[in-house]
Design brief:
Keywords: Glutamine amidotransferase, Transferase. The protein is of the alpha+beta class. It contains seven helices and 15 strands. Helix content is 26%, strand content 30%.
Length: 299
């Protein structure tokens, strides 16, 4: 069943409230996916400081503080580690590809679940509200956030299997539904050199979109291509550092609602997740049309 929430802030005065607003939205969706959850925040100054790259990972055999020290020696640069059990967040004043390569070298068995110049991804198993509180999501700030409550259908209940799937730089994809032809697409992507970390059908969608973006396709076109390629029933929320997009399949049986004001754009699986947002009474509220791609860009 799963629950999706996302918030794109147009008004910079709301940035300090991002985590609190997103937490409230996520809490309203707990019963749609009580087994695990994930969330992504763009622009938090503690987790993703300006001028530094950030990597989020699971299953590190080395504690966050020790890992940061080892990476600092390897990179000859200061590395900060945050222990947000079970997620570790690392950031350093080096390029994203340099930090991710160092992480893979020092802890090759760890699972990188997010990376970029602005993005922090947090995942865990259990009640979504309790996870958000443990991570300290309510105190986060930034310009954009997405979150997902999972009711597993396509793969095991693990932190790794939680959404969002963040497989490209500063990119996230969350998904309610299922892709029926994902295995054939996965094999095609593997033949082109794409590697996978899980058996989750959502990862196939995320890898597909990331490949199109890496090849220079814009986000709207990439999602139109996904609609033409993937079969199944789905609602997707896809984010990058400067974009926020929603798309549904041709049948559109998976619920979705969008609200928009001059100060923000929000999306959720149900209206109750939007009901307490500031200014909701005057928002433009609508259900996204089948196969139409809706994209908002950061100004």
């Amino acid at each position: 069943m799963c629950g999706i929430v996302g918030l794109h802030l147009r008004d910079a005065t709301l940035h300090p409230q991002l985590g609190a607003l997103l937490s409230g939205m996520l809490d309203a969706m707990c019963d749609r996916g009580p087994d695990s959850a994930g969330m992504a925040v763009y622009g938090d100054p503690t987790w993703s400081p300006e001028g530094e790259s950030t990597v989020s990972l699971l299953d590190s055999p080395i504690p966050a503080t020790d890992l940061a020290q080892q990476l600092g020696v390897a990179l000859s640069a200061p590395v900060t580690g945050h222990d947000l059990d079970p997620t570790i967040v690392l950031h350093a004043p080096v390029a994203t590809d340099v930090l991710t390569a160092a992480v893979r070298s020092v802890v090759p068995t760890a699972r990188i679940i997010g990376f970029g110049d602005h993005l922090t991804v947090l995942k865990g198993m259990g009640n979504p509200t309790e996870l958000a509180d443990r991570f300290g999501l309510r105190s986060a700030s930034g310009w954009q956030g997405v979150a997902h409550t999972r009711m597993a259908t396509e793969s095991a209940v693990t932190a790794e299997g939680s959404h969002p799937f963040a497989v490209g730089p500063d990119q996230c994809l969350v998904h309610n539904g299922s892709f029926s032809n994902h295995m054939s697409i996965k094999h095609e992507l593997e033949r082109s050199g794409v590697s996978f970390d899980s058996e989750n059908d959502t990862e196939v969608g995320a890898r597909y979109v990331a490949k199109q973006l890496a090849e220079g396709v814009d986000l709207e076109k990439a999602l139109l291509m996904l609609n033409e390629t993937f079969d199944g029933f789905y609602t997707l929320l896809v984010s990058t550092s400067d974009s926020f997009a929603v798309v549904r399949d041709a049948i559109a049986c998976k619920p979705a609602i969008i609200a928009e004001t001059d100060r923000w754009v929000a999306m959720a699986s149900e209206y109750r997740a939007l009901a307490k947002l500031p200014g909701i009474d005057t928002a433009r509220i609508f259900e996204p049309e089948p196969e139409e791609v809706y994209v908002w860009h950061r100004q």
